[in-house]
Specification:
- This protein is α/β, with parallel strands linked by helices and 290 residues long.
- The protein has a single domain, classed as Aldolase class I (TIM Barrel), CATH 3.20.20.
- 47% of the residues lie in helices and 13% in strands.
- It has 13 helices and 10 strands.
- The strands form 2 sheets. An 8-stranded parallel beta sheet has the order 4-1-10-9-8-7-6-5. A two-stranded antiparallel ribbon has the order 2-3.
- Strand 8, helix 7 and strand 9 form a beta-alpha-beta unit.
């Protein structure tokens, strides 16, 4: 199995669009901005990247653009679908990636034994590290602590979980009983400080698209157990954490990125640009973060 260490801040990257196509120039610039800010790893082609709207050619373009500008940062690509065949097809398409982020199958609402069997099957088809992604608010199914721990224990190349359930006690159970070398990453910016105090290794962040240096400093302070610095940064960033989810992600975030001049405020249906009140909220939040 290939080795990868996921700690600190990884960015769940936006996919910039212009004139209906992937805006490669904006993707290059935003990737380089992440690296220069000290972000630890990059996660294109996830929920935040509007991946269900991308063609296979666009997925490969996004991955290769990020990889070419990521320096020595690991690039973890989202490949999960609601079928084994769909996920394996994405893994084959994106086989050059350092690791695969695989979401709990959505819409199907599988039982726990189905979730376990699905991830076991997916992991058996690759030597690459696999990161389990639990986000029941999107998928309709929660991967509970016992299932996550069984996967972590039984399957060597399942090396981490991105936990976005918001179920803090569930995540604490995983942290308390995880096998050595298994990383636990917050999938919600607002939960990061709490979970890192409990021993989590970092976050896969939406906010770091907007404020990469501050998010890198925040998570690095937490890893060093400099809680005074981490708490101060969390308090400063918390309005951004909340504002980014007043409408479905990535709607508010793309509004913020457009206001920063980093990409056009362009999304693909069924997502639509932010409401005027969201635009105004993002302006206020960004002004306070200057």
């Amino acid at each position: 199995m290939e080795k990868i260490i996921l700690k600190g801040c990884g960015t769940a990257m936006f996919t910039p669009f212009k004139d209906g196509k992937v805006d490669v120039a904006a993707l290059v610039a935003t990737t380089q901005r992440q690296v220069e800010a000290g972000i630890d790893f990059l996660v294109p082609l996830g929920t935040t990247g509007e991946t269900p709207t991308l063609s296979d050619e666009e997925k490969l373009l996004v991955y290769r653009t990020v990889r070419a500008n990521a320096g020595n940062r690991p690039v973890v690509v989202g490949v999960g679908t609601n079928s084994v065949s769909g996920t394996l097809a994405n893994m084959e398409l994106l086989q050059e990636a350092d690791a695969f982020l695989v979401v709990v199958p959505f819409y199907n609402k599988p039982p726990q034994r189905g979730i376990y069997a699905y991830f076991k099957e997916i992991a058996s088809h690759t030597q690459k590290p696999v990161i389990l992604y639990n986000v029941p608010g999107r998928t309709g199914a929660n991967c509970d602590a016992e299932t996550t721990l069984a996967l972590a224990r039984d399957i060597p190349n399942i090396v981490a979980v991105k936990e976005a359930s918001g179920k803090l006690e569930q995540v604490r159970t995983i942290l308390a009983r995880r096998p050595e070398g298994f990383s636990v990453l917050s999938g919600n910016d607002e939960d990061t400080l709490t979970l890192m105090k409990d021993g989590a290794d970092g976050v896969v962040s939406v906010a770091s698209n907007v404020c990469p240096r501050e998010m890198a400093d925040f998570t690095h302070s937490a890893l060093e157990e400099d809680w005074q610095a981490a708490e101060a940064l969390d308090a400063r960033l918390h309005p951004l954490f909340e504002a980014l989810f007043v409408e479905p992600n990535p709607i508010p975030g793309k509004a913020a990125m457009a206001q920063l001049g980093l990409m056009e405020n362009s999304l693909r249906l069924p997502l639509v640009p932010a409401l005027l009140e969201t635009e105004e909220l993002m302006k206020q939040v960004l002004w306070k973060l200057r």
